[in-house]
Each structure stands twice: as C-alpha cells, then as structure tokens.
Amino acid sequence: MSIKKYSAVAVFVLFILFSSCNTAQKNPFWNNGQPVFEVQQLVSNERFPNVVTATDGTIIATWGSEHFRALRSEDGGKTWGLKITVANPGFQGGGTTVDETTGDILAFVEGGHPPAPLTVYRSRDHGKSWSPEEVTIRPNSLGHVPSMHMNEHGITLKHGIYAGRLIRPSRWYGSGNGREFWDEHYTNAIYSDDGGKTWQASEPIPAFGTGEAALAELSDGTLYYNSRRHKSIDGLNPRRRYIAYSYDSSQTWENLWIDEELPDGAQHTDYGLMAGLVRLPVDGHDILLFSNIDVPADKKDEDVPFELRTSRRFNGTVWASFDGGKTWPVKRVVDEGSFAYSSLTAGRAGTLPEGMIYLFYESDGGGKMARFNLAWLTGGKDWTSFLPGKSEMKPMTNDLVRPLVRACSNQ
Predict the structure, then answer these.
(1) How many Cα atoms are found within 13 Å in the side-chain-facing hemisphere of 10?
(2) Mean pLDDT for the chain overall
(3) Fewer CB in a 10 Å sphere around the end CB: N or C, the chain?
(4) Omega into 238 within 30° of 0, i.e. cis?
(5) Confidence band (pLDDT; 50, 70, 90) for 22?
(6) Residue 350 CB neighbour total at 10 angstroms
(7) Higher per-residue confidence, 397 vs 221
C-alpha cells in the first residue's frame, strides 16, 4: 500500500474512533474509571423501599408498613431532609412513578397488606408535598383489578406511539395472601395515558404463583419484565427470576423464560425476594442493573424438611447486564450483612446526581441507601469490554490508532 493510501486509511480510522468516542461510548456512570461507593443508614424502622429520581434530580425514597413516608435529597444523596409523612396509617404499595411529561410523582398507598383499599397520592413539587386523588383502575380481560404491593418503581415510556404512557408493575392476589391462594397469584402491570387519572390493568405474565416485579423499557421500545415467584405450579424452577416481554406497550406479556443467572432470594427454599431494577440512561446501550441476595443453598439444608426451612436474607448483591437482560457478566456484593427488599434508581443527565446509582434496601429492621457508580460495580474493569460482541472484535495494531483506542475505553 502506498504512503498516501496508508495515510488516508489512518485518517479515516481516526475519524471513526473520534466519532465513537463522542457518541456511543460516553457513559457518565463510568466517571473515567474512578469508583464511588458509599452506604448510609436512612431509616430505622418499618419496611418496603422504593427510590426514584425526580425530573429536577431530587432523589426521593419512600417506605412504610404502618406509616407511608418520604425522604428527599437535593444534593445527590449526600444529605437528606426531614421525614415527610404522606399517609398515616399507610402501607407502601410500591410502583412509585415519575411522570416524565409533567414532573409529577405518583405514590400508591394501600390500607394494609393487600388485598386492601388503595389511595394514590400526587406530588407536583418533586416530593415536598403530597395530595390524595381519586383514580380509576379498569380490570383486565379476566375481570381482575390488581393490588399494588409490593413492586419496584414505575416508568414513563419514551418510545413508540404510546410515548408518555405511565406504567408500573402490579399483582393479583386472588382470594387472599395465604399460601393456599398462591396458585391464583400473578404479576402484571397497570398503565395510564392520561397522567395517572385512569389506569388499565394488563394481562398476566404467563406464569401463576408469581408476585412482586420490576420492569424497564429497552432502547427499541420493548418492555422487559422481571418477576419474583413464590410457588411453581408447572414444575419450573421457582428459585430464579421469571422474565417476560411486552411488544404492545404493556397490554400483554409473552416469551416467558427463566433467567438462571439471577437468583430469586435464598436458594434453599421456594419463596423468592422482591428485587430492584433500573436501566441506566446511556444512549445507545441497554445497561440494566438488578439487586437481590446471593445466598446459595448449603448441604446442611438437605437435612431440613422443606416446610421447616426459613428464609435467609443477607449478602445483598447488584448484577449488571449490558445486553438488555440476556446475560449478566458483572455482579458485586453491596452488603454482606442483612439485606431484604430493595429498589434502584439512576441519576438524570444534567442534574447533580448524574452518573450515580442509588440502592435503597431493607437492613437490620430499617433501611440503608447505597450510592455508587459503574466503575465501582465493575471493579474498575472498562465497561465497554462487556458490550455485546466486544470480545469478537479484532484489536487494531496501527501505532497511530492505539492511543485513541485507549482514550475511548477511558470514557
């Protein structure tokens, strides 16, 4: 190859690399590879965490098994304001939802453990104040109006003809919460196209015995659904997470499969555990984070009758997927001690929490908030090395290109 042609090829390659550095490879959660990790005690009593990021960047944590309360942080989770009592009494219904169109935040509060009466509270000031309002929830084709407790936060659709739709996971309890009714239970969702005034219940995910779920919208508009399962009634493994998808903006769910990489609670018993889930807002990538416990079964468990086995909840862990939940190549322990229900949110672009991840989880009878970034989660390993097809790419050897390859990987 002549020197002119060689130079032209080199310039073209440099242009492509610079373009990729400035677009697809930018990731504020990477922080140039500098890890951040902090944990603080947030609440000392009650249960059932949800955490969301308001449109102005305020981090809002809600919880409560007797009184439904909220905490706000306006400095990216470093400090927190006074507890705000939203409902007394009040039982956390989960599914706290930020309306990306208006900035309103909706909280779902039940009168006790479901099935129970529901009240929806709306905040128009990023969680400073809350007002109850009447809503309508229409049944699905089975005639079922689901309960809300206890699910991960809701989302606002960003893609397709239903962009702006509010969606949150929900749960049908059948005749009650007792073990004898678990065969009737299923998870689904409710969705609203009028800002949360009227909701429609979706069809079930195709697995009964499920309860407590999380969902995320992928970059192509597909909805990813991740559910706990209390009981298997079809011979399938109830100790891993159940996954389904919606291609019609949450009206129906299909393509059920069991993700053998993700545990559903401690692995010595069939009971599961409510999990956290969030998609990081990184353009061009479907990076999902999942939180649960990583507690393998012990040989001594085999000597204990199944009906006498009790749940063990510790070793809270966060997993990361870089392909929309197909594989989970990264996991890291957040708390080796007490860890139960959990919820995840991510900082917004252009606000103080940008690039940070927040995990609100039950621990030692209260709740803790972990604050970290992707550099901590990967242990400093370049996040781009986990992208789909990355391992199949042939490395460039041109001495002029190598420095730019390194520069791209450091973003």
Answers:
(1) 15
(2) 90
(3) N
(4) no
(5) very low
(6) 9
(7) 221
DSSP letter (8 states) at residue 183: G
Is residue 14 pLDDT above 50, yes or no? no
Q: How far apart are CA 351 and CA 345, in angstroms?
A: 14
Contacts with 294 (C-beta within 8 Å, 6 or more apart), sequence order? 263, 315, 317, 331, 333
133 half-sphere exposure, CB direction, 13 A CA radius: 17
Cα distances (angstroms) measured from residue 115 to each of 86, 170, 215: 20, 12, 22
| 240 phi, psi to nearest 5 deg | -120, 170
Task: Determine the Cα–Cα distance for residues 64 and 131; give it in Å rounded to an integer.
Answer: 17
Q: Which tokens sit at 6?
A: 């060689």
The predicted pLDDT at position 302 comes to 75
- Give the span between the Cα atoms of 202 and 329, in whole angstroms: 32
CATH of the structural domain 37-372, one choice from 3.40.50.720, 2.120.10.10, 3.40.50.300, 1.10.10.10? 2.120.10.10
Structure tokens at 60: 């809002």
pLDDT recorded at residue 399: 42
CA distances from 81 to 59, 188, 367 (A): 11, 34, 15
Residue that has been written with the tokens 């559910």 in this structure: 227
Q: Spell out the domain ranges in the chain.
A: 1-31+379-411, 37-372
Buried b (16+ CB within 10 A) or exposed e, 205-219: bebbbbbbbbbbbbe
Residues in CB range of 57: below 8 A, 6 or more apart? 74, 76, 347, 348, 350, 351, 352, 353, 354
